[in-house]
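Recall that a protein's primary structure is simply its ordered list of amino acids. Everything else, from secondary elements to tertiary packing, is in principle encoded there. The following example makes that idea concrete.
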Amino acid sequence: MSIKNSKNYLGILTGTSMDSIDIAFCNFEKKIPNILLFEQYEYPEKIKSQIRKEFDLLHLLSTKFEEKDNWKECEENITNLYISIIKDFIGKNKINEDDISGIGVHGQTAFYDCNEDEPILIELGDFVRISDNFKFPIIADFRQSDIDFGGRGAPLAPLFHEYVFSLKDINQIVINIGGISNATILMKDKIVSGLDIGPGNGLIDLFMRTFFKEKYDNNGEIAQKYFKDFNDDKTLNLLLDSMLAHKYDKSIGNMVINLHFLYGYMDECNIDSQILVQKKGSQDYYGKLVSLLTSLTSKNIINFLISNNLKNIDEVIICGGGVKNKMLMKLISEELKNSFQNVKLIKSEDRGVNHQTIEACLFAWLAMNYLTGNELNYENITGCSGSQLIGGEYREGLSMDLLDIPTNEGDDNDKD
């Protein structure tokens, strides 16, 4: 299999919270990726509702989540949506397909349980059918590939954080606040660890969609409005302990971002009688819950930073959608100043990386590594067995088994 000299790659994904479908066109000539083009597409409410309904039905009926046949209609709709978005993005930006070396595709994670002896992952997307529509290769199955090599399938972001943020003379912790928050510890220019640490935007966004008919808490305004009524570290820690009991080592499944599970955690901690004095079902009740969940996300991040003793850390970098939540950022900043006065808090933009583009760029980067034969070592992150070629390749008219997968033997220029 020959690879063009072009270092232009596409990356497309939708996150756990299903707030949008992001696509980026990236060039990797330099360490800081050049985002040539980026766009966020609307995620059709009909498809989101269909996926949530299927998840809830399987949960209530205790049906085996790994039976992917239950998700056939959802997968067909996601596949059609991805094909349409990729075609639209290429067409309206007048990108020549010959200038695209490949695309990294992360389908929709419908279910992920990392607590089993072997993780269970259902990622929706027919990558064979997607590949039939384009000249360039489709690189996908990143999480399943990691699982097949003995890993937990998540998180995938830390090695990319090392690639774009690491500096020779600065110790950093990168906190990516997506649907779930993950962290990367960088000592000088080397990664020490990477892991999922707990809830991010997912529960906040879920409550905003369900009870306020909004995609997210704009600038954290709802959390700000009700924050004066709620600030209880003991209650937050009780709730976090209950939620993170479902955490497996360094990975967290998407049951953390689910109303059924959240209500169960709240019942365990007697949340309603302790802090939610408003009438259940009222706007004030749900507003207070949004404030609770925002404080919960902040508290979880601060707990993680405290547990990792920041005396040797120079900077904490925040990236991901959480950067847009001003109330969340305020809570993190204030607590960080109180606990660690010498640690600088910055956003990814201060390192030349737009917080909105980072996840789509991650999957473009993963595709680039796969197609250039660069093995990645997730052993200290997911538990994957050593350095491996992460992902799977789909090309029009070819099965994966027939492809000549490159290796990086003899290449001294690889970064990982």
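The chain has 13 helices and 15 strands. Residues 1-5, 273-277, 399-416 have pLDDT under 50 and may be disordered.
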